[in-house]
Structure formats: structure tokens, C-alpha cells
Design brief:
By secondary structure, the protein is an alpha+beta fold. It has 5 helices and 7 strands. A hairpin with a 4-residue loop joins strand 6 and strand 7. Helix 2 packs parallel to helix 5 and helix 4 runs antiparallel to helix 5.
Length: about 210
Amino acid sequence: MREVDIIERVIRNIAHEVRNPLTTIKGYAQLLSHKSDPSLINKSQRMIIEQTERIDSIFTELYDAFTVPDDEISKCSFPELFQVVVEESPYNKYIVIDSTDQFTISLYRHRFQSCITTLINGFNWKYFDSMTVHLSAKKEMNCYVNIRFWGVVFESIPEEMFFYPFQCKQFFARGTELYKVYCIAQRCGWKFTFSKDSSEFTFIIPIQ
């Protein structure tokens, strides 16, 4: 039954996202038949094209969210893995690698780096100038990786709905970033969770 609920929520979110540009297209298409001014006709045509491209980008983003990078399991070291991600991020001055044990585990390196990069770079930074992201990892029975957003309050969104497409567009610019990370985690056998109280995402990665 839970699978049905998830599918229903995904379809509802996608339908809501697509309906807005469709409404705009319909409105401007109807106005075209009542306009004789060339400038107004051009404006209507331009708006219709823009909204059509928006719909195309919505489905491109969804397709990208379902596309898991090809990868093989390899030995990876912490915190070196974090350092690679931070160095490549345009927001590296806002990212802190908290003190963490040095250890090595086997995992899908490129998929994991894609997840961390998507969470950091996909965030809508322009609305949160004073924010920092803290990365940490520890090795116990499993590997626990935490990504904490300091200076951000994720409110009004129930935790069980957080990963659905377009649910968090006020925080993640494209709206599919969390869904992409969730899909990768599911394919890799990792547990990906979120705590609204601490504004923290957590990966629980089984030790190979």
C-alpha cells in the first residue's frame, strides 16, 4: 500500500508542476485569436514557447532524477572523498568538513559523490547568504554520513514528503534534487533520511 501512496504523491506533484505552464499556454493561445497588434501577437507566441520549454525542462529534470550514474564499487577514504567534492563546488567557501575519523570503505564512489554534489550545488543558495554546510562521517557497524545545513529552517514540509519531486522548490532550485539523491540511494542499498529538527541529511551505508 505504501508503494501506491508514493506513486500517487509523485503523480500529484508532477501534475501540479505541469498544470501551471499549461494554463499559461492555454490563456495566451486563446488571446492570439483576439489580437491584431503584431507586438502583442509576438508576445503571446514568445510566452507560449517559453512555457512549452518549461514543460520540456520539467520532464528532462525528472528523467535525470531517475538516471543513476554507471559505477563500480571501489575503495574510498574519508575525509578525502569530502575534500574532492568541496574543491569542485562553486560554494566551497561555505562548506565545512567537520573533524571526522579517517577510514576507508568500499562503495559506489561516483554515485556517492553525485549525491553530495547534488545536495550542495542544487541548493538555492541565493536566498540563504549566511548558510553553511557541514559534512561529517563516522564508521561503526555501518558508515554514517551527515550533511547538515546550518542557518536554514526547513519548515512547513512533513518529513515523509520531503523527497518527492518539486516538494522543496523553495530550497532546491530545480525541485528534483532530493528525489535524484533518494533514487541513487535506493539503487545502491543506502538509507537516505532527513531530520527537520537538525536540518540534516543522513546516509547510512552498509559496510561491504
